[in-house]
């Protein structure tokens, strides 16, 4: 039974990885999950300089998931190269570094710094606010998506995954723009913008007022967007958004995803990614599927 998948020339032993921002850089989860079993570990967002993130409170529980407004707090590329890459290299898994920035120059600087490092792919978080455009996310304008992709591709040594924001009118327009800019793969969806109000305090539950909604509540939206994107572009897709079980992961693959990322579920079950890998294997056995690639986009 073959569970390996190919993403832009990078072979993963299975299609399951962790979603950025939900797994740190693997170290804090390594006592609960065998990192050797994962297709890849996707790190928390890394910027060219340390980011403090947003004021607290930054997380709120909601029906079917959570809201977060962490603000991409991270220690910066210097510490990441010194501490996190050596840790991950101890394991037999692929390393995908999530990159964030406030300007095209920020992203390119991180891509350049990682060019000689032993990491396998870069995932570019274009849901970051573009300071030069008054704070609108890079991923909310097709022209910006194409331009930032093109720019990063000039500086990146590894294949580039563009992580698409769902907070747009037409996801396929953004996917086509990333493809036109030279992206090697796409990942989607990032979080949906949401809000929660505490009626007793008559205050916003998050200091930032709005936050990113993740968890099972967003899964049907994510499946729809992955399906639409798979019809619109020829790039491999990493599907994410509310994957809690092997069934959710398989659904995402049938919609057109070549691999999947598990995020919010890690918070209440640190071993969930391993369980999903086992569940996909069981499903393949029961269904007489010899190669996991047979599932990719099987529903038309």
Give an overview of the whole structure.
- The structure is a single chain.
- 30% of the residues lie in helices and 20% in strands.
- It is an alpha/beta fold and 300 residues long.
- The protein has one domain (5-51, 70-194, 208-295): Alpha-Beta Barrel (TIM Barrel), CATH 3.20.20.70.
- The strands form 4 sheets. Strands 3-16-15-10-9-8-7-4 form an 8-stranded parallel sheet.
- α4 links the parallel β9 (160-163) and β10.
- The two termini are 24 Å apart.
Write the layout of secondary structure elements.
Blueprint: E1 5-7, E2 10-12, E3 16-18, E4 40-42, E5 59-62, E6 65-68, H1 77-88, E7 94-99, H2 104-114, E8 121-125, H3 142-155, E9 160-163, H4 171-180, E10 185-188, E11 192-195, E12 197-198, E13 203-204, E14 210-214, H5 219-232, E15 237-240, H6 246-254, E16 259-262, H7 265-268, H8 272-287
Parallel strand pairs: 3-16, 4-7, 7-8, 8-9, 9-10, 10-15, 15-16
Antiparallel strand pairs: 1-2, 5-6, 6-14, 11-14, 12-13
Helix pairs in contact: 2-3, 3-4, 4-5, 6-8
Query: How many distinct folded domains?
Result: 1
Which structural class fits the helix and strand makeup? alpha/beta
Kindly report the CATH topology: TIM Barrel
What's the mean pLDDT score?
95
Can you tell me the overall shape? globular
Name given to the CATH architecture: Alpha-Beta Barrel
Major beta sheet, strand line-up: 3-16-15-10-9-8-7-4
Annotation, overall tally of beta strands: 16
CATH homologous superfamily placement: Aldolase class I
Radius of gyration: 18 Å
CATH class: Alpha Beta
Residue stretches low in confidence (pLDDT < 50, at least 5 long) are none
The quaternary organization reads as single chain
The arrangement of helices and strands along the chain is: EEEEEEHEHEHEHEEEEEHEHEHH
- Spatial separation of the terminal alpha carbons: 24 Å
For the sheet with most strands, the description reads: 8 strands, parallel
């Amino acid at each position: 039974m073959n569970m390996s998948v190919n993403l832009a020339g990078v072979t993963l032993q299975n299609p399951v990885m962790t979603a950025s921002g939900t797994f740190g850089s693997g170290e804090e989860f390594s006592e609960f999950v065998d990192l050797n079993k994962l297709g890849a570990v996707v790190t928390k967002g890394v910027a060219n300089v340390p980011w403090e993130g947003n004021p607290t409170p930054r997380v709120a529980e909601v029906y079917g998931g959570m809201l977060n407004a962490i603000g991409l707090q991270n220690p910066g590329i210097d510490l990441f190269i010194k501490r996190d890459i050596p840790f991950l290299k101890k394991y037999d898994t692929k390393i995908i570094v999530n990159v964030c920035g406030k300007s095209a120059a920020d992203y390119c600087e991180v891509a350049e710094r990682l060019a000689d490092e032993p990491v396998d792919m870069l995932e570019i978080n274009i849901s970051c606010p573009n300071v030069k455009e008054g704070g609108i996310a890079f991923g909310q304008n097709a022209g910006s998506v194409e331009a930032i992709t093109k720019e990063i591709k000039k500086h990146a040594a590894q294949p580039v995954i563009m992580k698409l924001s769902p907070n747009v009118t037409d996801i396929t327009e953004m996917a086509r723009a990333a493809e036109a800019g030279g992206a090697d793969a796409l990942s989607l969806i990032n979080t949906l913008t949401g809000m929660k109000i505490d009626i007793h305090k008559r205050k916003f539950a998050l200091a930032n007022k709005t936050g990113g909604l993740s968890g099972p509540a967003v899964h049907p939206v994510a499946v729809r967007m992955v399906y639409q994107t798979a019809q619109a572009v020829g790039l491999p897709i990493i599907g994410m958004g509310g994957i809690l079980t092997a069934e959710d992961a398989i659904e995402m693959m049938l919609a057109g995803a070549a691999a999947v990322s598990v995020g919010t579920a890690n918070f209440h079950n640190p071993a969930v990614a391993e369980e999903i890998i086992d569940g996909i294997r069981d499903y393949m056995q029961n269904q007489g599927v010899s190669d996991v690639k047979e599932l990719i986009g099987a529903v038309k």
